């Protein structure tokens, strides 16, 4: 594996925000150009047929609940995605989350830099950590914040401007925790398991990590990615899409597909940890974000990951002669995830039996 670049080189990645580059340059710097290209104009790709899941039915005893469980299993075993509706989070609150995200990214650069991440740390405002001189960088700025466990919060990088930012983030996390529990239980039931089968592996101190993303316009969208292709190291990922600007794409059967925008739906995808727990039945999708030549895009992602001290492994009931164990047990899977991600590797591949 390539060595981490010196601290001074890593620090330089924070010197110029992509937001500034987008304003002041007519062409991206060479370090953002993907030598292999990205496979054609984003407009050429078809839309992915992602099942729409009614979460109010999953949490009910109605006759329709069984059909919704079947839809859930189909969604997560085919493409790893669903569009969650009737999730119990008010539209007005989702608007607040989008508004406070926009308020932060439109602050003067010097104000945003008050919350810059430390060198070789992900928490805070910045862009790619540079692990290799050969690394191709992503065309985005973001704000990473560890939300749980509470003792992992680095409050110095939690914005105090906008003044409502911290409260809204905590409220969003609490609401998504409810959604996450509903889905964890429903996923187990859809496979004929006891409803707490996956939650048992979640541990006492699960990780909740939030990421606020800004994808500025890019003059050469066919050559630059907003986020390189990757799978999520989380158990589950919840994404609030930009209301108007598309960009998320998913890989299925070696074909890239666009993920459509459904107003007020939450895009949910399986992460590597749930693929392990389900012994490969549920798929952690490879996905990427493409750039737009004219419009910026903002999204909010929240990642739920088991306690790093928990033993995540395939559920015993899902292993038999016809369905052998696919993955090893793992502790602290996320430790080197970000380094693997930036170097274009997938940690999940190292865990296959």
Automatic annotation (TrEMBL):
<dbReference type="GO" id="GO:0046872">
    <property type="term" value="F:metal ion binding"/>
</dbReference>
<keyword id="KW-0408">Iron</keyword>
<dbReference type="Pfam" id="PF14226">
    <property type="entry name" value="DIOX_N"/>
</dbReference>
<dbReference type="InterPro" id="IPR050295">
    <property type="entry name" value="Plant_2OG-oxidoreductases"/>
</dbReference>
<dbReference type="InterPro" id="IPR026992">
    <property type="entry name" value="DIOX_N"/>
</dbReference>
<dbReference type="Pfam" id="PF03171">
    <property type="entry name" value="2OG-FeII_Oxy"/>
</dbReference>
<protein>
    <submittedName>
        <fullName>2-oxoglutarate (2OG) and Fe(II)-dependent oxygenase superfamily protein</fullName>
    </submittedName>
</protein>
<dbReference type="InterPro" id="IPR005123">
    <property type="entry name" value="Oxoglu/Fe-dep_dioxygenase_dom"/>
</dbReference>
<dbReference type="GO" id="GO:0016706">
    <property type="term" value="F:2-oxoglutarate-dependent dioxygenase activity"/>
</dbReference>
<dbReference type="InterPro" id="IPR027443">
    <property type="entry name" value="IPNS-like_sf"/>
</dbReference>
<feature type="domain" description="Fe2OG dioxygenase">
    <location>
        <begin position="205"/>
        <end position="306"/>
    </location>
</feature>
<keyword id="KW-0560">Oxidoreductase</keyword>
<keyword id="KW-0479">Metal-binding</keyword>
<dbReference type="GO" id="GO:0002238">
    <property type="term" value="P:response to molecule of fungal origin"/>
</dbReference>
<dbReference type="InterPro" id="IPR044861">
    <property type="entry name" value="IPNS-like_FE2OG_OXY"/>
</dbReference>
<comment type="similarity">
    <text>Belongs to the iron/ascorbate-dependent oxidoreductase family.</text>
</comment>
<dbReference type="GO" id="GO:0009805">
    <property type="term" value="P:coumarin biosynthetic process"/>
</dbReference>
């Amino acid at each position: 594996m390539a060595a981490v670049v010196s601290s001074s080189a890593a620090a330089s990645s924070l010197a110029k925000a992509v937001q500034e580059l987008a304003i002041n340059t007519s062409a991206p710097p060479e370090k953002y150009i993907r030598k292999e290209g990205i496979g054609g104009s984003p407009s050429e790709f078809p839309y992915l047929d992602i099942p729409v899941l009614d979460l109010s039915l999953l949490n009910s005893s109605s006759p329709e609940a069984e059909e919704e469980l079947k839809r859930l299993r189909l969604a997560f075993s085919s493409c790893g995605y669903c569009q969650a509706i009737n999730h119990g989070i008010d539209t007005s609150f989702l608007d607040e989350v989008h508004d406070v995200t926009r308020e932060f990214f439109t602050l003067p650069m010097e104000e945003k830099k008050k919350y810059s991440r430390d060198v070789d740390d992900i928490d805070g405002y910045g862009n790619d950590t540079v692990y290799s001189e050969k690394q191709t960088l992503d065309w985005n700025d973001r704000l990473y914040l560890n939300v749980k466990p509470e003792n992992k919060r680095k409050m110095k990088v939690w914005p105090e401007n906008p003044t409502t930012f911290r409260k809204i983030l905590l409220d969003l996390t609490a609401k998504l925790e409810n959604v996450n529990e509903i889905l964890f239980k429903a996923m187990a039931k859809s496979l004929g398991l006891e409803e707490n089968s996956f939650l048992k592996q979640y541990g006492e101190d699960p990780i909740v990590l939030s990421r606020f993303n800004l994808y500025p316009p890019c003059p050469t969208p066919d050559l630059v990615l907003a986020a390189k292709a990757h799978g999520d190291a989380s158990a589950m990922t919840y994404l609030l899409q930009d209301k108007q600007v598309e960009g998320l794409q998913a890989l299925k059967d070696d074909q890239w597909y666009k993920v459509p925008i459904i107003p007020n739906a939450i895009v949910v995808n399986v992460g590597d940890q749930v693929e392990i727990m389900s012994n490969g039945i549920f798929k952690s999708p490879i996905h990427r974000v493409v750039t737009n030549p004219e419009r910026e895009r903002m999204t909010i992602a929240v990642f739920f990951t088991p306690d790093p001290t928990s033993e995540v492994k395939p559920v015993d009931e899902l292993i038999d002669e016809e369905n052998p164990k696919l993955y090893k047990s793992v502790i602290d899977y996320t430790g080197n995830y970000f380094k693997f991600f930036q170097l274009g590797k997938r940690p999940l591949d190292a865990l296959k039996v």
